[in-house]
Amino acid sequence: MDLTTCYCRNRYCARYGLTGPQARLIRAGWHRRAPQLECVDCRHRFSARAGTAYAGIRSSDLIFRDGVRQLAEGASIRATARNIECDKDTVLGGCRVWADIVSDYWITSCVICI
Q: What is the structure's pLDDT at 113?
């Protein structure tokens, strides 16, 4: 996971929205298999997954990526659920979140290509 794109999520912090070295973030442990970050200035703690496609998932990153890849290649929801060994309703719930992310990506990509 690329942590250089993370920023302080506290809207009242002077470093809110700054990324890379200007963000001044340090690792602050783990929560649900995801790294936690802490802002040096305001001491606000947050998940490194916040604001990304990985936000809210409870499975490992590898299983998540494998499921998304299978769906992107045209596998059905039931087949994907069987392959990654989870319930089909879990995959369907993830599809609603992933669809927003994918549509934003495609819209951005199409605009750049034109």
A: 46
